[in-house]
Amino acid sequence: MNSSVSDVRIVIVGCGISGIAAAHRLLKSGFNHVRILEASGRSGGRIKTGKMGDKILEIGANWIHGPSEENPVFCLARQYGLLSPDALTPENQAMDVGGHPPWTPNVFTSSGRKLKLEDIHPAVELFAELLEESAKFQEKGGEPWPSVGQFIRTEVLQRSAEKWKADNAGSLKRCMISTMLKVECCVNGTHSLDDLGLGANGLYKTTLGLDCTFPGGYEGLVRNLMSEMPADVVTYKQPVRCIHWNNSDKRDVAVNVECEDGKVVAADHVIVTVPLGYLKMHYSSLFHPPLPLHKIYSIQRYGFGTNNKIFVEFDSPWWDQDCEVIYMVWEDEDAMVDQVEDITGSWIKKLFGFTVVKPSERFGHILCGWIAGHEASYMETLSEQEVLNAVTQLVRRFTGNPIITPRRVLTSQWFHDPWTGGSYSYPSRGCSLQDIENMMEPLPSKRSVSRSLQVLFAGEATHPFYYSTVHGALLTGWREADRLLAHYASTLPAQLPKSNL
Ligand code: 6YU
């Protein structure tokens, strides 16, 4: 046992926002031996700001979801002066959008028609109503279907049978439902809504506030937090290969962290923040002895999917000036589908459309295309030119304008990122809160009495209701730092600053 908190050695695996948050809180609370080991050459993980020419674009996280007092990312961004005046207004913070900002749409179809909003309004309204209902099964229990996809499809057919009839207009509305299903695949980072558990999906909570962006880039948040810690707190390009816990041979070392290059770092506590996508691929080699079975089952069961972006730049806009989102509706998709049969030939059909990157005074005419699932992973295997060709054909077909030519594209590649393996987590069919609790449970598990808190777990997938977000990830980092603080508050109370006791 250490006699002082400044002797306690803490290793954090991963320098995404959860790892940064944990280190920041521990260092501010009197722990001096905090070290982050990061596999890649940068901080931020899935917060990644990039460039297309001289335009700053977000390759990873885009928005602060629900920017208001309850959201710690909003509070930090405000404190660091990273937000625009609109995002700071009380009106913006008070808006209740339930995770779905009311963007102004333009809708185009595969026969080159621009639809009037009243044509598709009933479909959009019914879809929103069903999504809202789908979230209530978490509390009510007794869900009628295992997945959100099955629930929505069944209910659309039942509720629209009379209203929409089997005429052309009904068919078009069901095609619009297909597009909305694809939107939700992106929101949830899942291949299909048939994979998204109906009951567990209701675990997700939103905070008040209309989503906002960082005008100077999301990485500003990372830079500000990092600037308040010693520069050498992180070792970059230092992938961890295996965490040897429950050390029986050396009594003075609880955990040995073995790196890919053979280096071994001794620690009293290790906070693991690697993405669930990475854990799914490597849990069997990353821990020795292996993880307990209940943890393994939850890692396997819980969902982790891909949502990718395709930024496309145009010389001039082909969308309305007030348009914020463009929906692409395939007129042969009235079977309410959210996955394509022939991925290599038709992957682009999975792209639901684009959000408009605003303001145009700063960005010019850039759209951000969104694509989720296996089609998104397949897109990563194509060259930039192949993606550009596919997007050009799509836009020409949907606008009916045969000469529109995008200038260039920039794509994200989250599935093939070896340290991430996808974009973010979602509760898949058969999952429950118990899976998240299993994933966040420290090792050795609670039942054991010897050397507690050897390995702790943070990262977005371990937040019980803000999973898949930056604020969720940040809160899990603070949660695990607080777990250690509480532990030492009971064993070494005089060592910690009073505010943390
Ligand atoms: C948000 C948003 N957003 C878009 C896209 C993506 C994500 N998110 P990290 O991965 O950051 O860090 C782990 C580190 O570990 C990393 O640096 C690795 O290199 C390292 N590592 C791995 N293995 C290692 C090893 N062996 N050794 C050492 N190091 C190792 N979130 O708030 N707003 O707009 C979006 C979006 C394309 C990819 C997002 C968004 C998710 C966040 O980016 C993500 O949760 C956090 O950054 C994760 O931080 P971390 O520290 O946990 O891991 C209503 C309703 C429905 C319910 N769902 C709503 C979904 C809302 C999510 N929306 C997302 C949308 C977008 C567009």
Name the beta content range.
15-25%
Q: What structural class do you assign from the helix and strand content? A: alpha/beta
Q: Specify Rg, calculated over alpha carbons.
A: 24 Å
Briefly, what CATH class of the largest domain? Alpha Beta
Give the N-to-C terminal Cα separation: 20 Å
User: Helical amount among residues, as a percent range?
Assistant: 25-40%
pLDDT < 50 stretches: none
Q: Strand order, main sheet: write it out.
A: 5-14-15-16-13-17
Care to count the β-strands? 19
Q: How many domain units?
A: 2
Number of helical segments with 4 or more residues: 17
The CATH topology of the largest domain corresponds to Polyamine Oxidase, Chain A, domain 2
Annotated CATH architecture of the largest domain: Alpha-Beta Complex
Bound molecules: FAD-MDL72527 adduct
The residue-averaged pLDDT reads 94
Instruction: Give a quick account of the main beta sheet: strands, pairing sense, barrel closure.
Output: 6 strands, mixed
Global shape: globular
